Amino acid sequence: MKKIVLGFALLTLSITFNACDNLDLAPEDYYASESFWKTPSQVDGAMVGLHNQLRSYQFTLFNLGELRGGTLRDGTSFTGTASLNSGSIVRQDIRESSTGISGWAGLYAAIFQVNNFIYQVEKADYLVAADKSYYLGQAYGLRAFYYFQLYRTYGRVPLAKEPKVAINTPATAQDAYLPRTATEKETLDFIKEDIDKSVVNFADNYTTKMQKAQWSLAASQMLKGEVYLWSAKVKIDGATPTTTTTDLTTARAAIEAIIPKYSLQPSFANVFNSAATAAIKGNNEIIFALRYGFGEASNSYSQFIYAVTDPLADYVDDKGVAIPSADPLKVNGGGTIIRYEYKYELYAKYDAADTRANVTFLNFNKGTVHATNMRKFIGTIVDGARSFTDDFPIYRLADAYLMLAEIKNKQGQDPSAEINTIRTRAYAGSVAPVYVNGSFEQNELAIFAERQKEFVAEAKIWYDLRRMQDASGTPLAFRKDLSLIGVLDNITGQNHKLIWPIDLSTLNSDETLKGQQNPGYSGT
Predict the structure, then answer these.
(1) Which residues partner with 239 through β-bridges?
(2) H-run or E-run covering 49
(3) In contact, 213 and 291? CB cutoff 8 Å
């Protein structure tokens, strides 16, 4: 079994081992735990801290779920001062020597904090039983969420299940090695076990905290639906799933349990935009979101906007109306050099009456030049300056509807009701084109088209391409014959890229990992 070294410093033993710190064995607050885990308010503060840490990974989630989705440009920007980032990932040019992400995406720092929380709360006799159960429901859900990101990125990963330093102090560096799972199934089974623990601990309590900015039972049900839908469709350890029927049943039950508890916002803009009159943080469509606030934290979307000094004269929008040459999005200095830009071809996929187009993008046109800037997630004006404080949704009701459509399609049932529910809101004020049930592949492509337009910049499209299929069961990631869908060639030298390589630094930090790269990447 492959192993990865865990770096740590045991201050109490004055021992230092020469190891990497990609997996830090001790939670940051471990050495202060004697004075900390004593009161309910401390536990509540620790849970807030776990969510602050999750928020710090917002752009990591974007990188893992969005960059490889085929909708971003690389190279030269069409609008404004630009130096586009992550071009090699956007082009699928990932290799052992240039992975684009490293150190298991940094997610083990968060996992060890969650592990410590679980360990401390499990033994907390000062908590009321119902509160203790709710906290554990949150913690097991968060851990399953982190591991699902790792699983979809690397396949087999090290499974850290407890804060080992706090429970069983390693005596040597060798004792600190944490084995990578022998199979992908072992990783996925652990994720499913954590989800079950989360749901059981919530005990049917759908109460939410901090306006949907903390993990809840509904978030665990969404994750359960997502995990079991993945398990039903995506090859595991190179083999076609054998539990498709039961997994789809489980996924559907989880999603159908939460749909009646939420409602779509009547306007697509109001889902995100904190400047919109009818929008509130944690509105009825939001199931779980990363919270941003003025003076507290900002999202990462200033990187998608022109600099305020950029000359934008003589551009017109999609209706031929002149765009103001000076700061049309009222960035007021909040924009930066453009680091990420979506392809105009994505904007062109929206019908003229689809309101999502101009909520998501500002379209620039000048002669033969057609381009976009992000309008979604740009926040609001505070004291004369742009504040990028729109929340980042992890799960929302539109996602639940389209997951249910995908589940029904795989079950051989008609998904048109869910597709049309999303279209009706998208075409608010106009007559939406009605989708009529078709073949499996026609339905799958229709669902993907809605997801592609609905969830721009929400870190979902790469996973959609991996999970969703054509009639033969081939992932849509390989359908390069379809416009703005396929991103890989289903041939030797490309088909291994459904998962990412492990970076050389991580491989070389552990003797037992050398020569044990994910298939297809060794020597690249």
Answers:
(1) 236
(2) helix 40-55
(3) yes
